Amino acid sequence: MSHETKALFIIFGATGDLAHRKLYPAIYELYKKGYLSKSFAVIGTARREWSDDYFQEVVRDSIADGIESEEHAKEFSTHFRYQSHNVKDTAHYVTLKKLADELDEEYGLEGNRIFYLSMSPSFFGTITSHLKAQSLATDEGFNRVVIEKPFGTDFESSKELNDEINSSFAEDQLYRIDHYLGKEMVQNILALRFSNPLLENSWNKETIANFQVTLSEDLGVEERGEYYDKSGALRDMVQNHVLQVVGMLTMNRPDSFTPEDVRREKLAIIESLKTPVVTQDETTDFVRGQYSDSSDQKVKAYRNEDKVDPESLTETFVAGQITIDTDEWRDVPVYVRTGKRMAEKLSRIDIVFKETTSDLFNDSPSTLTIFINPDQGVELVINNKKIGPGMDLEPMTLASLRSKETLKNSPEAYEKLILDVLNGDETHFAHWGEVAESWKYVDQIRQTWDSFEDHIPFYPALSVGPAEANQLLERNGHHWVYTAE
Ligand code: NAD
Fold this sequence. Notes:
By secondary structure, the protein is α/β, with parallel strands linked by helices. The protein folds into two domains: 7-148, 3-Layer(aba) Sandwich (Rossmann fold); 181-411 and 433-474, Dihydrodipicolinate Reductase, domain 2. Helices cover 36% and strands 20% of the residues. The strands form two sheets. It has a nine-stranded mixed β-sheet, sandwiched between helices. A six-stranded parallel β-sheet has the order 3-2-1-4-5-6. Helix 5 links the parallel strand 4 (113-117) and strand 5. Helix 2 crosses helix 3 and helix 9 (225-250) packs across helix 13. The radius of gyration is 24 Å and the shape is globular. The model has no long low-confidence stretch (mean pLDDT 96). Nicotinamide-adenine-dinucleotide binds at residues 13-19, 46-48, 85-87, 118-121, 148-150.
């Protein structure tokens, strides 16, 4: 039996998409594995009027794919209660506290509480101040607040939000979700880099030519047009996931895996990002694009998506050259790109090594690829002698991809992150310092883009993005390793 933590989860936004798709299945996995057992309870809150029975049915429906047995699922769902709740209504917090105290008593939860804010961030401040004012935060156990993205829309708004939350909860009680940090292969970056002297000793400007981070989605904006049209790829993906991955790739070796040590090193990278050049010509470090319809016209253009302005200039794709302004990394470009309606759904990192400096061989650069999603694994491509006379070379691929079976049994990001919250481990959550510095970085790009004429380059849906993304690398004599062909 795994170590069980006693806790009451209070989920705000319990009828929402995220709760249904990710949170209930993750909590069920923790239950299956014994991290949660008899001593846990969940209160779901949202605007709708649901009964406990109906809520439990919804929860069972959300976990249906992975259940051990109907009986096991039923037993799990009896730990769930529902309270209709308007986050602005003080009286609702009083009722909520009463229910929380009852469940605490019933399940012996020792005052441990996890407040999961799975709602629009515009409510975060209201909720946290009520949690404090109506004494939902307990004195005896732990009180942890889990916060979903987006954490603000720029530095100013994120600071305002942070100050508002901080007036009720301290930084060490806050768990800002960046689900990329919960991914096995993103965490694995640190293991690969620092447990293999072979890689650790090559991870420097002498050996690495450039880094390439690709986080691409094949879907469009789906039902999230209203949110996305105000956000765009830069805010939605670069400020958080992309910069966090860049931090993991380039940070110095931490002294330990404590949150303090890991975050300190990651923050040092984000703080040292060089101000990007943002222009409308080839000198620019960042380019953007928006998907038009696909070449076979089966997939509609972004501007025709539901709840999107038909003249929208919002970017659904961003590519950039990031420079880390330290002696170690200044000369090693970090290329990043992310977009919707790309050719494939995948996240990967390609590390391109330098060619040999001697004339002995006509060699190609070696590459190391870290596959994050949906494949997980590592691939190294190095030079190898071609069989036969002479010393001609050909590429040799050494690859290890995790099997379907392994992937099926490995925990999802949300499961890992919720377990971390239960254990009080903040290592894989975004600290305010990182969030603040990341916003300052992307704000510079956003502000310049907003000052441009009404123009955005288009790329056909289901492609690798606009041609400008290739020119970014070509100007340095580089090219994208992954081209979707
Ligand atoms: P959603 O719109 O599906 O659900 C929102 C929830 O908030 C619903 O339960 C709704 O009833 C509740 N709500 C809204 N106004 C309320 C009010 N005044 N009082 C009480 N309850 C109210 O949203 P979602 O997709 O589940 O996303 C939740 C959060 O997670 C958001 O911050 C979102 O940005 C973030 N997020 C979602 C996803 C995703 O894949 N869905 C991914 C990453 C981050």
